[in-house]
Amino acid sequence: MKSIGRLVILVKDYDEAIEFYRDKLGFEVFVDINSEPHRFVHLRLPGQPDVGIWLLKASSEHQKSQVGQQTAGQPCAVLYTDNLQEDYRELSERGVIFNSKPKVESNAEYAHFLDLYGNEFVLVELKQ
Predict the structure, then answer these.
(1) CA 35 to the chain's CA centroid
(2) Who is most buried in 7, 48, 55, 84, counting CB within 10 A?
(3) Please, what's the b/e burial string for 94-113 (b: 16 or more CB within 10 A of its CB; e: otherwise)?
């Protein structure tokens, strides 16, 4: 193995998920191919071209029941920042819901937030 390419997130609707991840979290769409009956949507953070999120629309009833719960209440990803306080403020202003205020433990400051479906992410600033 060489590297991680995509984290798969089940979604209810491609366009509403794109809007959330792009407009609220700052991801960019770098693949959006609509090849009926499938649509391929890949997002990434600017400056990190090799790792991203693959949005996958839930199709079966079982998949639909797992949207927002695919990690059984545990975080589905950790995102790093150089300034947690600034990102916390900006994301909050954009309507991102945080589970708690930022916390400091040993060499990191972190805060948990939810996407539009309830998937939990951890935003972390590592202290030197």
Answers:
(1) 24
(2) 55
(3) eebeeeeebeeeeeebbbbb
CA-wise closest residue to 96 among 13, 26, 44, 48: 26
73: burial class by Cβ within 10 Å (0-12, 13-18, 19+)?
Answer: exposed
- pLDDT tens-digit readout, 91-128: 999 999 999 899 999 899 999 999 999 999 999 999 97
pLDDT of 33-82, one tens digit each?
A: 998 888 999 999 998 989 999 999 999 999 999 999 999 999 999 999 99
Amino acid (1-letter code) at residue 126:
L
pTM of the model: 0.93
Which CATH number does the domain 6-126 belong to among 3.10.180.10, 3.40.109.30, 2.40.50.40, 3.40.50.300? 3.10.180.10
| Nearest partner of 75 among 39, 42, 41, 111, judged by Cα | 111
